[in-house]
Structure formats: C-alpha cells, structure tokens
Amino acid sequence: MSKTIELAQHLEKLHINNMYKSDFYWTWDKTDEELDAIFTVADALRDLRERNKSTRIFDSGLGISIFRDNSTRTRFSFASACNLLGLAVQDLDEKKSQIAHGETVRETANMVSFMADVIGIRDDMFIGEGHKYQKTFMDAVKEGYRDGILEQQPTLVNLQCDVDHPTQCMADMLHIIHQFGGVENLKGKKIAMTWAYSPSYGKPLSVPQGVIGLMTRFGMDVVLAHPEGYDVMPEVEEIARKNAAATGGSYKKVATMEEAFQDADIVYPKSWAPFAAMEERTRLYQAGDQAGIDALEQKLLAQNAQHKDWTCSEEMMKRTRNGSALYLHCLPADITGLSCPEGEVDNSVFDRYLVPLYKQASYKPYIIAAMIMMSKVKDPVSALMAMDSGDKRKSF
Amino acid sequence: MSKTIELAQHLEKLHINNMYKSDFYWTWDKTDEELDAIFTVADALRDLRERNKSTRIFDSGLGISIFRDNSTRTRFSFASACNLLGLAVQDLDEKKSQIAHGETVRETANMVSFMADVIGIRDDMFIGEGHKYQKTFMDAVKEGYRDGILEQQPTLVNLQCDVDHPTQCMADMLHIIHQFGGVENLKGKKIAMTWAYSPSYGKPLSVPQGVIGLMTRFGMDVVLAHPEGYDVMPEVEEIARKNAAATGGSYKKVATMEEAFQDADIVYPKSWAPFAAMEERTRLYQAGDQAGIDALEQKLLAQNAQHKDWTCSEEMMKRTRNGSALYLHCLPADITGLSCPEGEVDNSVFDRYLVPLYKQASYKPYIIAAMIMMSKVKDPVSALMAMDSGDKRKSF
Amino acid sequence: MSKTIELAQHLEKLHINNMYKSDFYWTWDKTDEELDAIFTVADALRDLRERNKSTRIFDSGLGISIFRDNSTRTRFSFASACNLLGLAVQDLDEKKSQIAHGETVRETANMVSFMADVIGIRDDMFIGEGHKYQKTFMDAVKEGYRDGILEQQPTLVNLQCDVDHPTQCMADMLHIIHQFGGVENLKGKKIAMTWAYSPSYGKPLSVPQGVIGLMTRFGMDVVLAHPEGYDVMPEVEEIARKNAAATGGSYKKVATMEEAFQDADIVYPKSWAPFAAMEERTRLYQAGDQAGIDALEQKLLAQNAQHKDWTCSEEMMKRTRNGSALYLHCLPADITGLSCPEGEVDNSVFDRYLVPLYKQASYKPYIIAAMIMMSKVKDPVSALMAMDSGDKRKSF
After folding, report:
1. Could you please report the per-residue DSSP string of A140-152?
2. pLDDT tens digits, one per residue of B260-271
3. Of B46, B72, B85, Cβ closest to residue A111
4. Cβ-contact A176, A186 below 8 angstroms
5. Same domain, B345 and B272
6. Is the ipTM reported for this complex over the cut 0.90?
7. What is the CATH number of the domain that holds A339?
8. Domain match, C294 and C383 both
9. Which among B56, B70, B332 is the nearest to A59, CB-wise?
10. In this structure, are B14 and B64 located in the same domain?
11. pTM for the complete prediction?
12. Could you list the residue range(s) of the whole structural domain that residue A144 is in?
C-alpha cells in the first residue's frame, strides 16, 4: 500500500466536512482535526509528486495572488501549489493596475475574481490593517457569488497578515513533526520562540504570533521571550494560553533569551517590531504622516540596537538540549558576518542548519496546496485515491 | 436540453463562416449575426462553467497581452478568457524588454508571436495611434505566417484602441440584453451616453464611441450629450447614424445632460477628453513636446472644471424612466464624496447600482473568450456540443 | 511516414544517453551527436506543432526564468518552449523579491525551485560573473535534490551568460542548416563573424564567442574580424581552433571587415564590447565604483566611434559570394538611418534580409524546447513517436 493510500485512510477518519468552501485566515479558526487534514494532504501530495503522479484537480482555473509586500519564498510557494493542482497564477500588481485612491476593496475584489478559484493575499505591513483587508476582500467575493456576479466562490489562503502567518507556521510545524518522527513524539518538548536583534526595521509580528498560536496545540512547552517593549498582540497570547490548557502543554513568557534557550528542543530566534510601535505606525500611516513614520523608524532602529545581545550565537545554542536544538527560521535571516555585521544568528550556526532550514521552507508549497485542496474538493479521500492510481505528471 | 445546447442550436442558424481566423478590431466591422454569435458563445461558455464543464480548446498555446496603458479589469478579463480556453498568458512588459527606439512594430510583432494563438492589445492613449499600432502589428504577424516565420497565424482581440473598446461595449450590451430579458425587448428603449465631469484628465474616447457605434444596431434610441468642445470622432458618429437608419432605431445629439436623461431607460454618464484636444496632444507627443503636453493637461483640467454640473446626481436620475434607468459605467468611476469631492456620479446612485455594475463587468471575460473561440474554432457549434457532454473542469 | 517519424528514426541512431538530467551551459560541453539531437528534436517539435499535434510532456510543472538583463526575444522563446511542453513559467523578478544583500545564491536557488522542472537563466553583464552565477545556482539545486529539499532535480538552460549564448547560436545554426539544405552542404562554406560599429555600449561577447565555438564544428571556414582591442575570450578562441582541427574546417582571424566578408557565404556583423574593457568593468563593479564604470563607458563609446567604417553597408555586402551572402543578426540590430544615424548595418541591407532574419529568430523556441526535452525525457524517440500519433493541440 502506498504512503498516499495510508494517508487517505487516515484522512477518512477525520471530521473535516466544514473545510469545503472555507477560507484559511488563522490556524486557531480550525479544529485540531482540520489541521491534521492539512498536514496529511500535504504529505500525500508530496508523495504523489515524488512518484510522478498527476495531482491536477483543475483542468483550468486561476489562483489570484496579491502581494502587498515583497516576497520570494511565499510567491514561489503559492505559484508551485497552484500549478500542482492545475491552476494558473494571475498576480495583481497594484502598480500596473488602475487601482486608484478611492476604488474600494469590494470593487477590486470582484474585478479580479471573475474566474478565480482561490485567492492568496499577503498584507502584513500595518497592525489592524492586514486581516481587515483580507476579510473585506473575501466578504466582497462571497457577496459577488451570492449576487450572481461571480459564477464560483473563490476561497482564501492567507499568505501572511498582521495577525498570523499560517502557511509559514503550518510548514514549520510539519517540518517539526517530520524531524521528531511524528506528532506523538512532541509531548513535553520545549520550543523557544524568541526575539533576536536585526539591523532592519518593522518586521511583522505574524510569525511569532502564528508560532505561539499554533504550536501550543501539540502538547509542547512553548516559551516566548523578548526584550521589554517587544510584546506581541495580547489576543494571540490569550489564544496560546487556552491552547496549552486544552492540550496538556504549556505556554509561558520569560525575560531573557538565555532562559528561553535553556534545554530547548527547538529554537526559533527571529526579529520583530514592537506591537505598540506598530500600532503607532498604523496611526501615522492612516494620517498620511510620512515624516512621523520616518522618525519612528529611526527611534525603533535605535531601540533595536540596545538588544544586540539577543542573538543566536554558538554560546546561546550550547544552552539548548544537548547543544543541538532544532534551529528554525522563516528566512531570509540576518546572519552575523554574512549579510550584516551583527544580526539574528551566527553564520556558523546558520550554516550548520542549512539543510533542515531549506527543508522547513520546502513544506510551504505543499501546505498551501493542501489548504487549497481541502477548500475546493468535497471528497478529498476519493481524490487522493484516484490520484494514487491515476495518470503520470510527466508522461515520458 | 441544456442552455448550452439551445445556444449551440441558435448559433447553427447564423452566417458566421467569415469569423474563423479573423481579427476583432471594431464592432462595426462585424455583421449583426457575427455579434449575435459572440453573445451566444459568451452565454454558452458561462453556462458551461457554471455547470463545471471543461471549456478547454487548447492543450497548450499562448495568449499575448500588450497593455500600453494601465489596466486591472481588462487584464484580468483577458487572463480569465485565455485560461478558460486553455491558453497561458504571456505579457509583453515593454519596460522589461529590449524594445528600444527604432525597433519596428513589425519586428516586435514577430518576436513575441512565435507560439501565439491570440494577441490582445490595449493602446488607447493617442488619437490616430492606437488602431494604427494594432493594425501594423497584425499585418506583421500575417506576413510572418505567410513567410513561414510563424507556424500559426494569431488573431487579434482589440482590448481598447483610440477608436473603439469592443470588449467593453459588447459586455455592456450583453448586460443590457440580460437586464431587459432579451434583445427583442430593446426596440424603442432610450439609452443616454453622456459626458460627465471628472477631476482627472485625458480619459479615452473609445467608450462613448464604442457605445454609439454598437448600441445603434439594436433598434434603440441612442442619445449622445456632452458640453461644447467634447465631440467624439465624426467618423464614428457617421457610423452611428447609418446603424440607426438600418435598424429602425435612432441616433441624435442633444446639448444637455438633462435632456439626454429625460425618460431614458439606460444611462451611461462618463468622462472623456475632447477629441480636438486629443488630436493636439497626439501632435505634441509626436513632436516630443512634453512641456506642451503638460500645458495642455492644465488647460483641459480647467476646461473640465467648467462643467461640474454634468454629473449623475440623484436629481439627474429622477428624470429617467420611473427614476430608475439602468445605470452603466465601465469602471472605475469617479464617485462624488467617495473617490473625489466632485465627480461623475453621486455616491448614493453608484452604491444603489453596485450589483448590476459588477455584473456588467463580469461579462467581459466571456465576451473575450467568445471572440477568441470564434476566431480559432472552425466549427464552434460542434465544439459547444462536445463541451456540453465532455469532461469536468474541476475533477473532484 | 511523417517528418517527425523520420526525425525520430534519425534520433534513434545517436548516442545521447548522457543528455538525460544534464544541464546546458555551453555548446562545447556537448558531443556532435548531442547537438544533432537538439536540432533533430527542434525540427520534430516544429513539425508536430504545424500539424496540430500536442507536444505536452508535463501535465503540470514549472519553468523558472531569471533574467538579470532585459530580454524580449529570449523571454518569449523560453515562455513558448515551456508552454509547448506543458510547463508554466514563473519569473523571478528580483525587484519584487526579498532578495537582499547577503541572501546567498544557494538559498535563492532552493527557494524558487520547489517544483521547478527547468531553470532558464540570463546573466551576461559581467565577464567572469554570468557563468559563475549559473554554476553556483545549479550546484545548489543539485545539492537540494540530494538532501531531500527538492523532490525533483531541475535542469538548466543557459539563456545567455558571459561566455556562450547557446540558445541563440544553436538557433542560428539550425537556420543555416535549413537555408543551405542540410548540414552536409556546409563543408567549405565561409562564415564571417565580424565586429560592427554601434552607438551603444557594453554589448555582451557571448554571441561572437558562441558563434566561433559552435560553427567551427561543421566543416565551415570560420573567420573572426574585429578592430584592435576588441578581442574575445582567448579560451573560446582555443576551443574554436580545436574544433576546426577536428572537423576539417578552419578558424582564423583577419584584421579587416573587408577581408572577412570577401567571398563569404554567411556574414554575422555585430557589435560587442572589448574583452579587456569588460574585465575592467567587472573589477569596477565588484569594487562598487559606479563613477569608474561611467568613465569607462564614455571611454568605450569614444573608442567605438573610431570604427564607424566597420558597418555592413551595401558596398561591404558586394564583397560576399555573389554579393548575396546570408546575413545573420541576433536582433535587435542598430540600423543606420532607421534606429540610429550610423550603426551596424545599412537599412537597405537589413530590410532585404528581414524574412530570413525573423526565421533565424523563430528557431529559438524550438531549440529551447528541444534542450528541455532532451534533459527531461529518458526515451525521446518513443516520446516523439507517441506525439506523432497522439492528441491534437487544438481540439476543435
């Protein structure tokens, strides 16, 4: 029996009826079984591809991507996922469009969704804005479908908002599951999500928030650490606490990177901007105050520079379990001595983890494809079984 | 019997042999039955898609798009249409190309058409230039095919030129046909194509020209109104007059928006630039006189501002048939109090017509797909019938 | 028997087992039979397309393109080739990506190759850099495949580097073969690869290098001519000499365009930058010395201007065999009196050769598709035979 068939049989046992036609905003909107389904389908799609099986669901159709911030990894992951299922990607490049001041999100949403099966949106720059944009967009296409404007209802894959980065964190999690030989081995494992110094500015909070919101669901001991003033959104911390309480794991905050790294099995040191500053930035942005934004940037860079000791050095790594915790990063990293004089991680540490880091990234296209498949296919079990015995991807 | 089969049976009665391998420049190049065929195939393709039937004609092939002006709606419509039929879109971004001063249109045309099945071009900025560019381009690829350079002859879909905007106006017309329950109900209906004030500059004349050139063919009473100096091309008015004479409808010009709106069944208030000024602009452009172009822009904006009373206000709408004419716009509109302080239409009017406006736009991908299909498929009746009983678009 | 079957039977006789899974950097890495295979498959794919046969190998999959320099012809050729075989193109636009200073080529290579079947790279701007980038990139994806990051190993098509421009020169060569009625008619034919004056700066050396490195393999008398100081890379000249010695042809350098053109059967007059100056430019680039680069540009333009007599005039053409040598250019050309006051070629000469010039270019998509097919298909003979009796490309 192939791995895909085994995975399809596992999928059959899960309660996943609500996933059909649903959007993927945040991992905490989804049940444990629904997340399990995403991981299962991602693994199956990878197995099928490795065995040169066609995984096309669509004979034609479009995946619309909207990147309101630059992207390489996620852009190529979304393109790969769409292609894997038979969708062509049409990117909305706001610079080449007629989207002027005043065109509503509702109008844009309908105008680009004529034949869209799926919509992928990255909008992570302003606290309180990214999710709102995605929600407004998807409400508009739902209305558009209801009103007979669109002849199908596209579904959303959140490619990063101000709150969560689910395609990243789900890929991170699938990587962890495989590295530790199965989700059943994660109970009691300690994962340290920590701030790290970076010479750049305004990195989104969605990764640390996504990590504590997701990884508290697998029985792990999740520890968050950051310098004073670099808090994440309190709503997400609340979710992390509830998750931990429900799964027998734990969630706590500690004051130093050293304490977080102590005996950790997994470390995820990464820079982000302070939540309060990001709220201030959003206010300045809404007021159109570019001078204020620039001044804030200078202030934040100076503030960052007071915490250069928050770095994933060789010394710091020695504190982890056997000195060899699994090191994670969403990439690209600010690497001390390679991409900057002082950054998030020592070059020697980063270099030692290069292969697992790239593997971590390599799950993202499959996670996205699984999210699309679960929202577009009514009977994914039968679909996987048909693919398993179906046509080749490369014919000759 | 499915709607598609009914439509295919209607198509069978039409004289449409000349459409195969033909280009689509202007609606007035086409016979009434040819336009009927486009509407019929557009409706059939939509029906097939709603029923999850594959409408692929091409197993591979390219649609080349050239947008010499920004676009969202038309770009996504063209991409959707190509995808619907199985073509991938390759966009010629002149900024990323080596198209230097001096490379002839003939050379570019051949170089991007190696495997092009269809070419979509938007070139609407300069009077006397847009159509010329399209014609030169298509003559070049015809020669290229004849000379054995290209192994197939691509056909054109005019995505807007300086004279006509056929994909827009055909979508507008199909919307009208559906709103009024069939083309047979349009006889004697009054449609008002009127200028409206906009704070922006240099909007193309191709929409009002396309509207009077097309909508005079269905027995309607077509009225054009604009302030003094905002005339459209006289050649197109001549076509409108001839159309009206031939179909039992009428075409006339009136001096005020009020008169045009009086008892109108359909209104299409929209800003455009004066033809004479656009001719002047083309001369300045050809002379490379940017200062002259800038000065002209200031002059035209001042001229526009004298006609702020040309706006689709609630008061103006009250004059129409039962105060509830069908309001049309090609989008995006300049909306008073939403996208600008004073514009083409009151926010309350625009908002009330949002759903029909988006529906109007939603026909464009199907109109484009129908234009492509009629020019590439020798026996479209059999093709529709085969699609009707053929494979699913989404397999699972 | 179809032309494709004949070509497949010829292919069957060639020793081409090493091509499967191989990269295409330079023509001189390949055996004569391997180049023969590329020409054969290119001709077969064109024959199949002309007969409306599907040439899809891939049901899904991506071709990744990276253009580090502008491109129209090669961009559309690569897109056409990928489409012909069933691959979608995903372009890495470095401006829209997060590729920052410090992100290694190794990381980028893995991040964009998640589902890449083929990678096309143009990097021709700096001597000693272009090939190095391609090699580093492909070594990274090979490691990525070996380490389980990528689930397939993509192969390279060099879309132009600092050393060779194989897709151009192979297309040029296939054009020559067809113009002369077969490779067997080329023995003793004289081809003149000469420098020509252009008012622009810094054109790559990869075309003249590619031409002398490839065309010395077919028994032709290859002559290179350029003004003093415009030498090409000595390593490539050495290859040209060895090729000539092995195939009974010849390679020599002469000092004037007149001598090169004398009795030539084929002429390829084209501007390029001096190798030594390009080396200097690379040093300035590596040192970040933009002022130095600008000064060098001025110096080189002045140097170019001393050689305006190196131009493919009507007088120069009269020296060739019967005054009617086959004129080649990779396009776009600097045409005297059309695109510039004084350039590489007289307008009347260029215009007379327009059809063969466009034909020359039209082989490039098929050459690229053949390179992809030979590297991805284990049994190309069977594949061609199956295509010959297989499905239509356009169904209706």
Report:
1. HHHHHHHTTSSSS
2. 999 999 999 999
3. B72
4. yes
5. yes
6. yes
7. 3.40.50.1370
8. no
9. B56
10. yes
11. 0.97
12. 3-163+364-388
